[in-house]
């Protein structure tokens, strides 16, 4: 069994009388430890696919097995638990809580995992150490640079030791230098054995991955080995 | 638990960073709790004062027999005033002689009169005549000098115990003991001064003169009805002693079985009961005012919470993406609305005590804290936060993480 098995995954949206088909049947298998880039033109369904992989959304039809569990038919609260235990998200716009410190932001998934305060704190500190932010623990997001914010987001994604790490255009809001630093960080995570999915427009970003999935009109056009 | 604390902390933080909005939101709660606390505190104060007044009058462990009892029906009261004979010393002897459960029976009569000392004069002072058993009742005592002895009472000696207020106003610092005061036109030697009792509802409890019953009757005549105070052997035997007293008086007055009692019997509890019935009317009005402001307050809180949920759609989506279950979101929003609502209640408690204190300062109405009213204020506003926070909380929990995150 692969870590991720996707069969004929479809997602369509009801827009008034019209149906928008965002994904029209996607098949994919990904092994543990792989680094996958998802590319494609705007509107091709990249974000939709990533959100399904991250259990943020449920497919209209098809099957999605993650870690031997069929998550395509799970109830909402079970999905919440899967997101909490198996998945780490990195968003283009960081999505940090403005009122909370870096440490509190990183602790958040552990709060919902029911981890006690002391352990939460030490694990969040370790995660911030991994992204090289030990000296910014008590800073709030507006006291951090864009690159630092994205690294806090990565620490938060990693803190609960998820099976997969999902990033939707993680460098989209960063300049090229900090973007390159972030890609270096993702590379090192890959080397440590994490499974990564990165959605991107840029070929240079995609080239860091082991395979590039090209989407067009809600379907996989090619899967390219780098 | 840590989730709850986190939610609580978030709630306090949010309230603090929007002080004015929070204040306006919980206005209804503040009004409700302020009025509860103020009214309850004042009524509690009056309860204590009235309780004191009644027990100092009737004694907690005694019952009273009077010509007209406590009758709430106006016509019946009128008939009793017309038909009931005066209470006499014979009645007292009958009650004392009939029952084995009775420890002491005292007779007393009060009349307002003039008291003078060396040209200083007090009009309409309470002059109380007491029979010799008065010594067995706890409401009489002296701070200086001594009580009137039973022998002095029996011999109708012209001696008096005066209240602290009489000593203060007539003697102005001079030692009143063994001085002669004039009650109406007769001289009495002061043998004791009572301890200061203070005022109830602005009325001094210290302006009285106690004299032997016989001496009182020499001044004011014998035609006035007496009041009897009866003390049972043990306070638990109050009911039996009261039944005995009724039988004793009916025999002595030769009443036929069909005839009603032509005298009144009551305890301090009877009077307290009347007072409580009166205050329960005030409480009924209070409940109306409070319920109305709580509902209004609750609706405002619900509105603000709905607004807050919209404001935080993205945050809620993020929390769900990170693993928050529906109940986690529900608890977070509920914790916030309950905290907001309860903070309003706490402000109301402080304001309510402030109002009660101000009224106590400005008027003779006393105030006393009733701990249950504090619990009630907190409990009620907490409940309002819970009830009116539920709909916004459920709305928040229903948000789909992806829709919520998409929103800018
Ligand atoms: N909630 C929605 N309701 C209706 N249509 C939607 C919704 N979400 C996505 N779509 C549609 O589905 C299609 C795929 O959208 P998706 O966001 O996956 O594209 P994308 O590949 O991520 O594009 P981009 O590169 O611009 O981010 C688009 O046509 C989009 O309009
Ligand atoms: Mg997209």
Quick tags:
A: 226 residues; alpha/beta; 7 helices; B: 408 residues; alpha+beta; 2 domains; six-stranded mixed beta barrel; 17% strand; binds adenosine-5'-triphosphate; binds magnesium ion
Account of the protein in words:
The complex is a heterodimer of chains A (226) and B (408). Helix content of chain A is 35%, strand content 29%. The longest helix of chain A has 16 residues, at 176-191. Chain A has 226 residues and is of the alpha/beta class. Chain A is globular. The mean pLDDT of chain A is 93. In chain A, the strands form 2 sheets. Chain A has a 6-stranded mixed beta sheet, sandwiched between helices. In chain A, strands 2-1-4-5 form a 4-stranded antiparallel beta sheet, covered by helices on one side. Chain B has 408 residues and is α+β, with helices and mostly antiparallel strands. Helix content of chain B is 58%, strand content 17%. Chain B has 14 helices and 12 strands. In chain B, the strands form 2 sheets. Chain B has a 6-stranded mixed beta barrel with strand order 2-3-10-5-7-6. In chain B, strands 8-9 form a two-stranded antiparallel sheet. In chain B, a hairpin with a 2-residue loop joins strand 6 and strand 7 (186-193). The longest helix of chain B is centred in the C-terminal third of the chain and has 44 residues, at 268-311. Chain B starts with a helix and ends with a helix. The A-B interface holds A 51, 54, 56-57, 76-77, 80-81, 83-85, 89, 91, 95, 97, 99, 108-109, 111-114, 116-117, 120, 156, 160 and B 2-3, 6, 10, 13, 314-315, 318-328, 400-402, 405. Bound molecules: adenosine-5'-triphosphate and magnesium ion (MG). Adenosine-5'-triphosphate binds at residues 13, 15, 20, 22, 40, 42-48 of chain A.
Radius of gyration of chain B: 32 Å
CATH architecture term of chain A: 3-Layer(aba) Sandwich
Fourth CATH level, the homologous superfamily of chain A? P-loop containing nucleotide triphosphate hydrolases
Q: How many separate structural domains of chain B?
A: 2
Structural class of chain B: alpha+beta
What number is the mean pLDDT of chain A?
93
Overall structural class of chain A, as computed from helix and strand content, comes to alpha/beta
Regions of chain A with pLDDT < 50 over 5+ consecutive residues?
none
Please work out how many helical segments of chain B DSSP would assign.
14
Strand content of chain B: 15-25%
**CATH fold category name of chain A:** Rossmann fold
Averaging pLDDT over every residue of chain B, what do you get? 89
* Low-confidence region ranges of chain B: none
Largest sheet of chain B: 6 strands, mixed, barrel
The small molecules bound here are: adenosine-5'-triphosphate, magnesium ion
Largest sheet, spatial ordering of strands of chain A: 6-7-8-3-9-10
Highest CATH level, the class of chain A = Alpha Beta
Strand arrangement, largest sheet of chain B?
2-3-10-5-7-6
């Amino acid at each position: 069994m692969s870590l991720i098995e996707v069969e004929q995954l479809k997602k369509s949206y009801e827009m008034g009388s019209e149906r928008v088909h965002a994904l029209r049947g996607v098949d994919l298998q990904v092994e543990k430890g792989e680094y996958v880039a998802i590319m494609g033109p705007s509107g091709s369904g990249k974000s939709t696919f990533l959100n399904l992989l991250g259990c943020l959304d449920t497919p209209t039809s098809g099957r999605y097995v993650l870690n031997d569990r069929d998550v395509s038919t799970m109830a909402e609260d079970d999905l919440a638990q899967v997101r909490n235990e198996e998945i780490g998200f990195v968003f283009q716009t960081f999505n940090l809580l403005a009122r909370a410190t870096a440490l509190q932001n990183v602790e958040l998934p552990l709060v919902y995992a029911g981890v006690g305060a002391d352990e939460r704190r030490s694990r969040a500190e370790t995660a911030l150490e991994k992204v090289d932010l030990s000296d910014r623990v008590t800073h709030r997001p507006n006291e951090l640079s864009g690159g630092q914010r994205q690294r806090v987001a990565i620490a938060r994604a990693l803190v609960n030791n998820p099976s997969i790490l999902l990033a939707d255009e993680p460098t989209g809001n960063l300049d090229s230098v900090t973007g390159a630093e972030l890609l270096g960080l993702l590379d090192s995570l890959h080397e440590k054995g994490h499974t990564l999915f990165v959605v991107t427009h840029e070929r240079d970003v995609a080239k860091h991955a082991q395979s590039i999935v090209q989407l067009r009109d809600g379907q996989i056009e090619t899967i390219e080995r780098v | 638990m840590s989730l709850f604390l986190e939610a609580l902390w978030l709630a306090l933080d949010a309230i603090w960073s929007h002080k004015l909005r929070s204040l306006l939101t919980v206005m209804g709660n503040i009004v409700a709790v302020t009025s509860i606390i103020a009214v309850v505190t004042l009524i509690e104060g009056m309860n204590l004062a009235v309780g004191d007044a009644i027990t100092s009058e009737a004694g907690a462990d005694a019952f009273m027999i009077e010509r007209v009892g406590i009758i709430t029906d106006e016509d019946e009261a009128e008939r009793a005033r017309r038909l009931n004979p005066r209470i006499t010393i014979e009645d007292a002897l009958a009650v004392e002689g009939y029952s084995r459960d009775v420890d002491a029976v005292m007779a007393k009569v009060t009349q307002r009169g003039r008291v003078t000392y060396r040209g200083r004069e007090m009009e309409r002072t309470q002059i109380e005549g007491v029979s010799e058993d008065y010594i067995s009742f706890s409401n009489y005592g002296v701070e200086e000098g001594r009580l009137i002895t039973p022998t002095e009472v029996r011999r109708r000696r012209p001696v008096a115990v005066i209240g602290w207020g009489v000593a203060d106003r007539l003697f102005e610092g001079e030692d009143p003991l063994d001085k002669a005061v004039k009650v109406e036109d007769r001289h009495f030697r002061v043998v004791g001064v009572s301890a200061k009792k203070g005022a109830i509802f602005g009325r001094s409890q210290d302006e009285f003169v106690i004299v032997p019953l016989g001496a009182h009757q020499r001044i004011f005549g014998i035609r006035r009805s007496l009041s009897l105070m009866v003390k049972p052997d043990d306070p638990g035997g109050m009911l039996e002693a009261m039944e005995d007293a009724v039988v004793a008086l009916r025999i002595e007055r030769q009443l036929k079985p069909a005839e009603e009692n032509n005298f009144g019997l009551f305890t301090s509890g009877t009077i307290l009961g009347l007072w409580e019935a009166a205050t329960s009317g005030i409480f009924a009005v209070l409940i109306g005012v409070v319920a109305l402001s709580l509902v209004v307050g609750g609706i405002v809180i619900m509105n603000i919470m709905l607004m807050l949920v919209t404001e935080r759609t993205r945050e809620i989506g993020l929390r769900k993406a990170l693993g928050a279950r529906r109940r986690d979101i529900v608890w977070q929003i509920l914790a916030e609305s309950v905290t907001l609502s309860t903070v309003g209640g706490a402000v109301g408690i402080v304001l309510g005590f402030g109002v009660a204190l101000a009224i106590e300062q400005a008027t003779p109405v006393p105030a006393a804290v009733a701990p249950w009213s504090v619990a009630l204020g907190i409990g009620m506003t907490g409940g309002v936060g819970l009830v009116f926070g539920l709909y916004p909380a459920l709305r928040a929990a229903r948000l789909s993480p992806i829709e919520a995150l998409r929103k800018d």
